[in-house]
Amino acid sequence: MRYVIITGLSGAGRSQAVKAMEDMGYFCIDNLPPSLIPKLSELFTESKKIDKVALVIDLRGGQFFDDLTSSLEYLQKMNYQYEILFLEASDSVLIKRYKESRRKHPLAQDGRIIAAIQDERKRLESIRNKATAIIDTSNLTISQLREQLANIFLEGRKFKGLVITVISFGYKSGIPLDADLVFDVRFLPNPFYVDELKEMTGNDAPVRDYVLSFPVTKEFLAKLYDMLQFLIPYYVKEGKTQLVIAIGCTGGKHRSVTIANELYEYLRKNDYAAFVEHRDILK
């Protein structure tokens, strides 16, 4: 049985995560008091009728949330295998989401939202440290969140402990702030100066074929793959759960898109949970 506990910051997307997990065939229970986890675990194990379970545990449970640590200790003692998905987002994004939804933060009784968010971060720190997967939803659309969840929890896909996001961008619009690794591909031949390719993007076959036709591109990709094969296992060993790789060209429309797509396909073929985003392709 695959047993997933979903938790994290209020406003970080737990409700959307539950919907995605349900669509993947998980039996989901929202806002469960942690004290009930042991009994439910025994029930699911004995019935053998449910093989995928997702439980949402968060601070809406008030004082019941404090029982989570002891419940997890019980699961370990009884050799129940479980995973923890932790959802988070930046303070500014969380504040914006709460203002747009006009909902009240569970810890903001009469105080400011920012104080409640910071308090929640402190209270959840120990659980975050135990998480097997951490997803920062600050810059994710609902569909992008669903894809990342599918990469991790959909049966038939192997999760190696790291979610890798590949972003193409244009330097004239700035480097992505959350990038861990940045590669400048402005040295590659530019399709922008080929009349029939200028208005296309790296998602179009003619542009892709043009960029990949040069020996320098093939050599760069081979060296990039080799470096990532070396680096990624060490990131996982260190405990890193998210890696953002940014590929940049001048405008973010041709070369960076092509290389980002190639890197994404390479990572997927090697069973990494990968996602690709083209930030500036429409600019």
Automatic annotation (TrEMBL):
Gene3D superfamilies: P-loop containing nucleotide triphosphate hydrolases (3.40.50.300)
Domain RapZ-like N-terminal: 1-154
Binding site for GTP: 58-61
Domain of life assignment: Bacteria
Pfam families: PapZ_C, RapZ-like_N
Residues annotated as binding ATP: 8-15
Keywords: ATP-binding, GTP-binding, Nucleotide-binding
GO molecular function annotation: ATP binding; GTP binding
Presence of keyword Nucleotide-binding: yes
UniProt xrefs under HAMAP family: RapZ_like (MF_00636)
Protein name from the UniProt record: UPF0042 nucleotide-binding protein
Organism: Caldanaerobius fijiensis DSM 17918
